Structure prediction request, 284 residues.
Amino acid sequence: MKIYEKAPAKINLMLDVLHKRRDGFHEVEMIMTMVDLADRLEMSELPRDTIFISSQAGYIPLDEKNLAFQAARLIKERYDVRTGVHIHLDKKIPVAAGLAGGSSDAAATLRGLNRLWRLNIPDQELQELGAELGSDVPFCITGGTALATGRGEKLTPMPNPPQCWVILAKPPINVSTADVYGRFRSDKIVRHPSAAKMEQAIRNQSFTEVCGQMGNVLEDVTLKLYPEVQHLKDAMIRLGADGVLMSGSGPTVFGLVSKESKVARIYNGLRGFCKEVYAVRMLT
Ligand SMILES: C[C@](O)(CO)[C@H](O)COP(=O)(O)OP(=O)(O)OC[C@H]1O[C@@H](n2ccc(N)nc2=O)[C@H](O)[C@@H]1O
Ligand SMILES: Nc1ncnc2c1ncn2[C@@H]1O[C@H](COP(=O)(O)OP(=O)(O)OP(=O)(O)O)[C@@H](O)[C@H]1O
Prediction:
């Protein structure tokens, strides 16, 4: 039997860091949603009790460092499953981009193996398992749009923002999430984005208000470390995107665009100096 799962990328419409906790993680307030740029996973049972990962992408680890491997191992151990599985990852989401590619693969693996092995684990429990793998994994289990607090694992579902185009551009640099959080200083932040105001903008279904409430305090670290991310933001604004922000810890920058007639111009303008550019729809 074969199971297929789609693992979409996430963007942070707003991201605020409240303080550093005793366990080393940061207390955050984020509103996240998903975009129509997705990895595809194919899961099939193996006769031997082993986890085998394959991918067309030559640039990700295929051993126990892969988050899909870790997800499969966790669910096997916790539910005492003695069957093996082959997971093929068709990677489309850029890696180490701030788009939760690995986290979404881990979440899709938990969802898929729950079906393949008929474990009937409720979403809430899958999210708790996911939290053991990474802060973004619980959100990726159910997707949609949500307010995430705690270290990102406490989720309150929200309505989806108004439909629009999302243009994503990833400069050719790899950013470490741990490094960005490690360098973050809350006393340096002049303006904190407001989760409450973004939530209201979404409830109003006002595209203009959503663009006005976008903000990510981690830009303060990443933009200083990598000026090319700032240049990419400037270019997207100049080309006419309605709201522009870095996703997560970066380095991907996304632009929200309401008019389809503007998409090709922004896409082509960015392709002039950035190889990895995607124009997709918000997943609503
Ligand atoms: C930047 C975001 O992607 C925004 O959605 C997330 O906050 C990070 O989520 P993630 O990549 O799943 O992060 P994890 O794998 O859990 O943590 C990676 C590292 O980031 C730091 N980290 C992460 C989340 C958090 N709330 N506080 C932190 O300080 C920790 O040093 C941790 O060791
Ligand atoms: N299935 C996977 N897909 C992509 N990267 C993976 C996977 N498993 C492990 N990794 C490793 O995880 C690291 C981070 O990759 P990922 O694409 O998940 O980052 P990210 O998009 O910045 O995540 P986040 O937004 O959650 O911080 C990379 O160094 C990569 O080698």
In short: The chain has two domains: 2-158, 165-281. The chain has a mean pLDDT of 97.
